[in-house]
Amino acid sequence: MEGLVIKTAGNVFLVKTLAGDLHECVVKGNFRIKDLSSTNPVAIGDRVLIEKTSDEQTYFITEVLDRSNFIVRKAANLSKQLHILAANIDLAILMVTVNHPQTHTIFVDRFLATAEAYRIPCCLLFNKIDLYGAEDSEYLEALIRLYESIPYPCLKVSALKGEGIEEVRSLIRGKICLLAGNSGVGKSSLVNRLNPAIQTKVGPISDYHNRGRHVTSYSEMFEIEEDTYIIDTPGIKGFHTVDMHVAEVGHFFPEIFRTSARCYYNDCTHRHEPDCAVLKAIEEHRISQSRYLSYLSIIEDAGDGKYRE
Ligand SMILES: Nc1nc2c(ncn2[C@@H]2O[C@H](COP(=O)(O)OP(=O)(O)OP(=O)(O)O)[C@@H](O)[C@H]2O)c(=O)[nH]1
Ligand SMILES: [Mg+2]
Ligand SMILES: [Zn+2]
Description:
Oligomer: single chain
Structural class: alpha/beta
Distance between the termini: 45 Å
Low-confidence stretches: 206-217
Bound molecules: guanosine-5'-triphosphate, magnesium ion, zinc ion
Order of helices and strands: EEEEEEEEHEHEHEHEEHHH
């Protein structure tokens, strides 16, 4: 029987079959995914085959079907192993707040570049629009102009007041979505708003630096409606690519990538090279300075082992 893994707890996996039944499953024997050294063989979002055991009590996962994509973090155990956070993501949604708490563009751009590296389509959801004064709103509109030009779809919502929620609903319909964003931006509030039966825990923002603390401490897939799931991630700490080469970083900034076709050097890194079309575009304000600074910051990380030169 084929099913979808919607929850994991230790070695037990909750699988929803195509017929809509729920079964708790365990992994059969010494089961490994080829070419991947990960601490978990099965992750939420995996499509699996399951089989009933002869005692008719438990179900075994006998096979993990090919993944269209998956996201990883480094395992906590200091080894080189990876931990698969989720698989088969149709859409990554980054929730951003201009204020309460403030989301920095460098954080947004790193997330977008990472999603590009994983080949996951991405959109931006600007939350808490009910709170913004004139200055915040002006900044918000500038951000939307910037990101829509790249282009990343942008939506404005208020999870609290319900504004923009129907647009979110049609955006996510029929998809497995990853919902990410800084702590306190309102991810759990949005999930609860989309499906009030869920009522995942929402927390107050701590006063400390107006940054919020992590209320949601594990990943889970919430069924918003039939065939529509949201994975509410606890912040996105630890969500990074483990394999971004300096020469590749530009590939994950679509506007930089497009422009780089006109750079003199094929392997131009758009820093000091002569006849660089990207540097020229920045001078002429066709590529945003803030995106370029984010690009540089990822490249500069190559030194600390997070990304490789
Ligand atoms: N004014 C306003 N407050 C909101 C909105 N959405 C969420 N909040 C509040 O922001 C705070 C944090 O919301 P959560 O939904 O817990 O945030 P989260 O992103 O899930 O946070 P973590 O689980 O820590 O990652 C709560 O006090 C919410 O009531 C909104 O649209 N407007
Ligand atoms: Mg939460
Ligand atoms: Zn260049």
